[in-house]
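Supplementary notes for students who missed Thursday's class. We covered one full example, reproduced here. Read the sequence, then the structure, then the short commentary at the end.
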Amino acid sequence: MQKRPFGNTGLEVSVLGFGAGHVGGNDLSEDQAGTLLNRALDLGINLIDSAKGYDQSEARIGRHLSWRRKDFILSTKGGYGVEGAADWSYDCIVRGVEQAMRTCQTDYLDIFHLHSCPQETLEQDAIWQALEFVQAQGWVRVVAYSGENAALAYALNSGKVGSVQTSVNLFDQHSLLELLPQAPHLGVIAKRPIGNAPWRFEQRPVGDYAEVYWERWKTMNLELGSDPLELALRFTAFAPGVSSSIVGTRDLKHLTHNMDVVTRGPLEGDVSEKLNQLFVQHGKDWEGQV
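Structure (token representation):
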């Protein structure tokens, strides 16, 4: 698996990362979750991304991967959901990092993101004081932000984060084209690289996570070819500025296929540039999806 520098952090991340949201659900048994996580590392993936809000995800990472801690970069997200502490407060962040370390059975987190809070939250000094503290303790190696639009722009230009996580896909190029070029020194994790696979639906999937992207796909009149996943994943994985693209799955076959796709490298010729132009033509006012 090809690896890339993660901005100026000193870390190197695999082109394909593993989004561990699905691993937290009850539709996977403990054994299935453990097999999936370990297989991801066996294939050469070294970035595992989780969050406080992903149910059992952090706990399962701890149970099944703590023995391989030196084999992977652990990325997680938080800032909320700590009993007895107000969300986004100093105590919530510090205690949340401590809880994440205990749950993941590790004494440090490689990357800790503030998870999709708005710009007005990022403007509070207490948040950054808390992050400075946990970093000084050696509990967090890279302070980061996960989000979109105005809040992401604020984080990118704050000088306080070493990396960001944001939506980058065929149908969501706002961050890629407008924001990420402002901070080429930062590590970038691209989430939703296949845009929630809207091609699965013949009709508009009302209420589904893919609905907005389905509408954009139809508006762009984008021909996806015989393997839409390959087009989408290669577009994102090799987009300028992207360090790693995280894909979540419950299925070992899907995981292996994703691996095969990224080994094929960038899209041929000027295909990616034409896809950029198509987005600008139809979606210049489309914001990033949180």
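Commentary. The chain has a mean pLDDT of 97. The domain at 13-283 is CATH 3.20.20.100 (TIM Barrel). If anything here is unclear, bring it to office hours.
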